[in-house]
Specification:
It contains 15 helices and seven strands. The chain is α+β, with helices and mostly antiparallel strands and 350 residues long. The chain has two domains: 221 residues, no CATH class; 80 residues, Arc Repressor Mutant, subunit A, CATH 1.10.10. The strands form two sheets. A five-stranded mixed β-sheet has the order 3-4-7-5-6. The N terminus is likely disordered.
Amino acid sequence: MKSSHISAKPRDTVSAGFVQGILAGLEYRESERLHLLEHAEIATNTPNDARQRVSLRSYTALYRLVTEHLCDEGFGLFSRPLRPGFLEWLARPCIQSPDLADALRRICLHLNLIQDNLRLELTHHTTHATLTMAVITPLPVGAAGFVFAHEWLLRLIHGLCAWLVEHPLPSSEARFPYPPPAHADDYALIFAPRTVFDAPCLAIDFPLEFLALPVRRDEAALQEFLAATPANITKLYRREHALATRVRQLLRERLPESLPLEETARQLALSPRSLHRRLESEGTSYRALRDTVRHELALDWLAKSDRPVTRIATDLGFADNTSFYRAFAAREGCGPRAWRQQRQQGGGAV
């Protein structure tokens, strides 16, 4: 993936990849797509250029225009439309829940009833919980729509849950069932510091203790929440992962040299202890971010270039090839050469 400049992407802009996704349900209705883009004051060539960004104001306008035009709060991405009132129907039962565990159970139950394409499930583990979305019936859209359906629904669920408990819900890792999209660099700030692609299904992990957080919203709060939509659910970029994203960018820019935690803290005008504590509050650590940056770049270079494995190890700052092999195999279950060969043979396709 491309390296990004240290400054975080403006929170009042949105990657063109999300614009392409929000229009995916109109894939074969070009005149309607162009009409909606013009009314949202977005250049008509924007969805075709992943480098572009649009204002949050225009994206919010497009969000509203598409749902109203299709009479579908799911943007035409699912086999059955999500009719107006869907969000209220999803959120209202949750304000009766005693805690987040019960609210998530209700969300999964209701979403499994109202649409036929994705099966949602919440599982409990020793130290964490995992929310999964598995495709059970093909979505009636192309690749961009497939990606956006997962992005949108996960962000909607996460945003609703954080609102219900009035508490940030940072996650350590999110896994997606498709190759990295052109706007994948934005994922760390939207979903989790570590993102994995080409996974069997969408899955996101978060600390188990979050499930015990009490629901703190009532009917009056729900009415305020609904009145603020879609603006409050089109704010993709989450504050609780902002620092982790900046650290990732610093680490990327320094490669192949290492960047000590102390120097990173100095560049961010923080003490090492404060940096450690704030990263921990975002569900990650300095070492985890360093290892993730290395691994993501390794996957990108192995998949998209003919760069020799030995050079990749050097470019990522590993002391030797053996260290790189062990680190890679620990995550992927095979060495980098075997992974590249499987990818070239189609083993990594979704």
